[in-house]
Structures are given as structure tokens and as C-alpha cells.
Amino acid sequence: MNWMEQSISQTTQMLKDLEGLIAIPSVREEAQKNAPFGTECRKALDYMMDLGRREGFEVQDIDGYACVLSYGEGTESIGVLGHLDVVPQGSGWTKEPFALTIKDNVLFGRGIADDKGPGMAAFYALKLMKEAQLSLSKKVMLIYGCDEESGMECMDYYVKHAEVPQMGFVPDADFPVIYGEKGGLHIELSGNCDSVIQSLSGGERANIVIEHAQAVLNEWDEEKAVLFDFYLKSNQLQGGIKAQGSAVQISIRGRSAHAATPYQGVNAALHLLNFIGSAFQDRFAQQTYALLSDWKGSGLHCELEGAYMGFLTLNTGIIHIDKHKASVLLDIRYPNDIDADYIEAKVKEALSEADYPLKARVKKQVDPLFVDPNSELVTTLMDVYRTYSGDKFHPAKTIGGGTYAKKLANFVAYGPEFPRHPNEAAAEIGGVHQPDEGIYLSDLQKAVAIYAEAIYRLAK
């Protein structure tokens, strides 16, 4: 089959279906009846199930946590895992976040790259296969969850209550094949602090670099205002000063990014702490910045470069200070050379040596993913990728991001982002979790073809 030709022929309908899915602001909210992640996530789930019924797939609702669209029969099964939830829209958009915008071969909208666009590509890959009436020896299961961005509770529920495929892939990362993913660790620092800061807040999710943060201070004068202006200009930042009764509120705007690549963002809260620590000689602010400012984690004694997975990364995702009570939530991505217990011990050691007032506790831990890069699954997917992309250079790899592949045995991440020279990418295209999130239409069309061929080879 010429899957690329078939993919292009479906583009008009695919974009129409994507338009409806992007329009649903499926950010996790408070649980409702039959909607454990809120009504908008439920709407997105119902939307995909309706599409599945339209195409004649077998459709199953896993109690609102996920859904399954199946095609074919067999005692063994191949799975493709996508997610329908998205992170909050954030600020800085020049396009409508919850509308599909098409400009110069680029699709824009929250979730278009992470993960509604890739999930729809997998849907259309299976649609093409069904229309071609190809004979398969294994059942193919498209599984869509609704809580990937907030902890993957959906997949925890799924593996306990539904059929688990023997192998498969997750279209929620990069090409070529991603056979390894760093472990994930959320550590909360909490306690009382002595500081000039009356309140400070920044961040919505642990897995996003803090884009905007603000602090309220009782002490302020013209000299501090001059210093703040100098700090902003020196670091090429935007910020503001606003009177708040007898106090003053200062704010800084940074740049959001995924926690797996914190070096691509600018953490506004850490910059606030750096300024306050320097301008006021505030020990707590100075200590916090010193401990957390290095994205490699050197301040917490856990800097490490793994043999397969590269550097450990540290993201300060959420911080709150209110009347000397403080909490900070850290997102740490670590290679499979070490384990969570080692990191926890190093963090506590660093805090103790600094005589830091906040105490650390682990709130969440996910083990690393590692699939043999020489396995049949990885080599088959690599061959398909090379055939359709023409890329003979880039090898299978590992990443810092976490996908559903961690939740099921013998799964890997697979596209849809293609490796390209940085100069080829339009500057206006935002990455995942960023404003103006976008993906090339031609890349999504090619992903449909790759997924169709991959599913066929794995399931025939």
C-alpha cells in the first residue's frame, strides 16, 4: 500500500475531525459522575468514541478514564496509546488556543502536538487499514486516556480494569523510536521560612517551567525600584511593580517549557527569588535560588549524566509562600543509572548541609522505561521510519519526557515530531506546553503513513 498517498487523500476530513477535538478545552478539572477528570475531558473522550463508531470500530468506555477503539481479531493485540487531555493554555498566544489555526503548512492549537494531533494521526492510520481490508493476525487497539498531563491516573486505572496489549507504541514524542524514558520524581519542599517575602506564587503544574510569578513585599523604596529595573534589563526580562496597600507587588514574566527540557524555558519564580535574595540580602531567597537554579541539579547534589539517557534534569514547577509558610514542588527526570532512593538521599543531604528550613518528601515516583534497542519492536519501527522519512542518520534514542509507554510493558514512544535542523523550523511555532503550540501539516500526514505501516507490520 502507498500509505503516504492514502494519508494525503484523507487530509480534509482529518482536519475537520481535528478542529472539533482541539475546540474542547480538555484540561483536568474536578471529578464529576462518569467523568473522573472533569466534564471537558469527558467531552473529548466522547468525541473520539463517536469518531470510532462512525468508522465502524469496536468502541469501549473504560469508566471515563480511557476509551478503546479496536479493529481486527486475534488472541494477541497491538496497542497505540494516546491522550486527550492538555495542559492549561497559559499566556502569550497569538492564535486562539482552542481552535485549529492553519497557516503556512503549520497547524496551531493547544494539544495539536501533545497529543491530539498525534492521536488523530493514529486514528486515521487505523482507518486507512480498515478501508484497505488488510488481513491481520492480531487485534489493534487504539487506547485514549484523559490524565496524561496530571499523573497518568487514567493508565493506572486502565491496566487494572481492561485488556492490556502485548506490545505497541505511543505517538506522543519524537521520531525515530524512543526506547528509553527517564524516571520521574516529584519532591515537595515545605515548612516555615524567615523572609521579607509576604507572599510569592508561581506555577500551575510541576511539569511546566514557571512562566509568570509574583511576590508581595512590605519593604520597598525608590532604590529597590531602580535595582529591580536594572535586574530585569540585565536578564532581558519583563516585569512590573504594583502598589498593594502599604505593600508592593513585583512580578516577572519568563518563558514556559516542558519540565523535561527546563533549559529551554526561563523560570520566573527563580528569578524573583534571585532578585529578592540579592536586593534584600534575604537568606531564604538566596538559599532557595542557590539550591534550585541549576537545571542539572548540582545545587541538590544530584547532578549526573547517564550512559543512555543523558543528564538528570530539575524543574521548579510550583512555588507558594504565604506568611512565612512555604512549599516548592520539584519535577526531577533521572536516567536509569540511578534510582529514586539515591536522589532523595542526596536532596536531603544538600538541604541539611545548607541548614535550609524546608524539609523534603517524595510525592510521586515513576521508574525509568528501557526497552532493548535491538528488540524486534524497536528494529521494526526503526525500519518503517527510515523507509518513509528517508532519514538514515538519526538513531533510536532516549528522552527525558514521560509518556504512557512507562505504564505498559514492551511499549515505546514513536513520533510524531521529526528531527530537523533548527534553522528549518519556523520561529513562530511553539513547542509542547508552550504558547502557539504547532506542528507541520506535512509532518502529521507523514506520521499517518508511518503509523499505518507500523501497525500493519506489527499486527500482520
Task: Summarize the helices and strands and which ones pair or pack.
Elements: H1 3-9, H2 11-22, H3 39-54, E1 58-62, E2 66-71, E3 77-83, E4 101-103, E5 106-108, H4 116-132, E6 139-145, H5 153-161, E7 167-170, E8 173-174, E9 177-181, E10 183-192, E11 197-202, E12 212-217, H6 222-234, E13 238-244, E14 247-253, H7 268-280, H8 283-292, E15 305-306, E16 310-311, E17 313-322, E18 325-334, H9 340-353, E19 359-366, E20 369-370, H10 376-389, E21 397-399, E22 411-414, E23 416-417, E24 438-440, H11 441-459
Helix pairs in contact: 1-11, 2-4, 4-11, 7-8, 10-11
Describe this structure in words.
The protein is of the alpha+beta class and 460 residues long. The chain folds into 2 domains: 3-181 and 369-459, Zn peptidases (Aminopeptidase); 183-366, 2-Layer Sandwich (Alpha-Beta Plaits). The protein is 31% helix and 27% strand. It has 11 helices and 24 strands. It has helices spanning 3-9, 11-22, 39-54, 116-132, 153-161, 222-234, 268-280, 283-292, 340-353, 376-389, 441-459; strands at residues 58-62, 66-71, 77-83, 101-103, 106-108, 139-145, 167-170, 173-174, 177-181, 183-192, 197-202, 212-217, 238-244, 247-253, 305-306, 310-311, 313-322, 325-334, 359-366, 369-370, 397-399, 411-414, 416-417, 438-440. The strands form 5 sheets. Strands 1, 2, 3, 6, 7, 9, 20, 21 and 22 form a 9-stranded mixed sheet that branches. Strands 13-14-12-11-17-18-10-19 form an 8-stranded antiparallel sheet. Helix 1 packs across helix 11 (441-459), helix 4 crosses helix 11 (441-459) and helix 7 packs across helix 8.
Short description:
With 460 residues, the chain is α+β, with helices and mostly antiparallel strands.
